[in-house]
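Researcher: Re-running this chain for the archive, since the previous output was lost when a drive failed. Same request as before.
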Amino acid sequence: MKLRSMKVKYLLLLAFFAALSYFSLEAVYRLASDRSSFLSLGIFSLNMYGLSIALLLLNYAADTARFYFILKTIHVEITVRQALSLTFINYFTSELTPFAIGGNVAQVYFLNQDGIPAGAATAGITIKAILPSLFFMIAAPILLIYDRSLDRIFPNQGSFLYMSILVVLTILACIFLLCLQKRPDSLSRVTAGLEKHFGKTEKSASRIKKFSGEVQSFLSHMALFLSGSKKYIFLSVLTTLLFLFTLFLFPVLLIQDLNPAVSATEIVLSQIVITFVMYFAPTPGSSGVAEGAFILLFSSDVGKGDLVSLTFVWRLFTMYLGIVIGMVVFYARLRNKRKRD
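Model: Regenerated structure tokens:
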């Protein structure tokens, strides 16, 4: 019954995401384009599609590799096939839930099904989320100083306030994790208090003890990343940067195919801004927020009649295809689990 409800829940979320994505494109058509064409994939060259497919495969490989190397660093052993499967599951489940929280939950769930303790799995996924955040923490001040494209999204100096808040929140989260890692005894006191007040029955006491054990496992594996193999730490950072860089290159291929005069550097800087905003957007798959930011930054670089097609193809390569593949992998994993049970 639990698996069935999970299947239904994600199908409903998929339907909601599809509707939200359509209305986002409809908004681009009505508010930003000249309404001469809603969707025309023929405006792009075959060469652009070929390069985008190659870039997409590289992006998938980098995303899989960073997850694999992060887990290797904290002594969690999985196969490359498992890492690839979990990467696509993340594409599907994270993009259908606000703040991408569904992807983290799903990856912990399937790693746990593969015999990885929840604490260790959560540590790996947390590190996977922290590494890109560190990149944006470094990039944000540079963008605020040298790139004024942010002002098109957040006028009246709003960009400085918004990005400063996000950077501060990220720093505070990192400090919190470091404090927990250095003083795990404080967490032990918390779990002891929980056990005293809520562990009245054997069942509840057992649950609290299990939770405490998973938290301790989480902290110990977080510490392992900082003191782990230098080779795997380096590969984790390198593949994370490669993953982000390939993500930033998609608009370069698309926009320069329509207008070769646009600077690739400016496109990449603007794409960093969009990705940073998307990381903290509350809507499923950042729908609405992503399309709005994309159009605000790039509407002057191409013809108004091409805006909807440009936005759709960008989302197709950076999101829609991953969601479709992830959906197939997700339901295949659930079906296999049901057969085993």
